[in-house]
């Protein structure tokens, strides 16, 4: 399967362990970003995953591309140029202290890119799937144009499209998000988003749900998905269900609505969480893999939730797990016993 993702890959600088920004004199360096994380997961599972972006034509841009290549992601459609690679700083939380993210991504290469930087007809030739997130159009007006051009080309080539809404309040307002995302939705086949994403990006809210108290209403999600599918004619709508008891202890499951049926996954307790950044991206990648390869709604959501549960045990943005490891957990082995 050929899967194309488009977005920004960034340099992640995180404080060692659980130290605070004010305490540290050095940072751990990793690379990642919503759609890049999805591409890496899918490459791990054996699919032909392509990441499309623009990075600067210098050594730091080389490092970002090499990070993707190292994990089997195809990078031949990457554009080079611009001033800089975006950066984000991460302070990992613990117990009741939340993690914090500080962005330094203004005027990054992809934020200044244009549709002319990419040959989307060539990119989508023979492609099966295209994935993007709501983070990419939030970066800049130019990134919105690039994303829209990609969507039009994907549909022209008959490619299935998925969108993880991923609302980021530090990048744009709900009003800005709804204006842009509503324009994109007619091109989308599968939408992914939690309660905040759906409300801030599309104006839909599941009744009876409050993630900060750990209260989740499955009926509320079902009604919301039915309304979203009726409006946008999606093939499916999906959400990860996170019960946030603390920064290092979450409940984790998922729900998927497709072909008029609801599928709910088994429930996992994530305790302790090693790194939750990238958890949503690993969920999206798992859902894409499940839809394409299992062609069964229940198996698709079980694979997505199992894959993302495993990601919470791994430091960094990327989900370094194999297809076999995900299927082992998906099929009920959560013992964590040493494998010899």
Fold topology:
Blueprint: E1 2-6, E2 10-14, E3 28-32, H1 34-44, E4 48-52, E5 54-55, H2 59-70, E6 79-80, E7 87-91, E8 100-104, H3 120-123, E9 129-133, H4 135-139, H5 141-156, E10 160-164, H6 174-184, E11 190-192, H7 195-202, H8 218-232, E12 236-246, E13 249-258, E14 261-264, E15 268-270, H9 279-293, H10 297-311, H11 323-330
Helix pairs in contact: 1-9, 6-7, 9-10, 10-11
User: What is the number of E strands?
Assistant: 15
Shape: globular
Largest sheet, in brief, is: 9 strands, mixed
Number of helices: 11
**Rg on CA atoms, Å:** 19 Å
Oligomer: single chain
Strand content bin: 15-25%
Can you give a write-up of this model?
- The protein is α/β, with parallel strands linked by helices and 340 residues long.
- It is 35% helix and 22% strand.
- It has eleven helices and 15 strands.
- Strands 1, 4, 9, 10, 11, 12, 13, 14 and 15 form a nine-stranded mixed sheet that branches. A four-stranded mixed sheet has the order 3-2-7-8. A two-stranded parallel ribbon has the order 5-6.
- Strand 12 and strand 13 form a beta hairpin.
- Helix 10 packs across helix 11.
- The two termini are 32 Å apart.
- The mean pLDDT is 95.
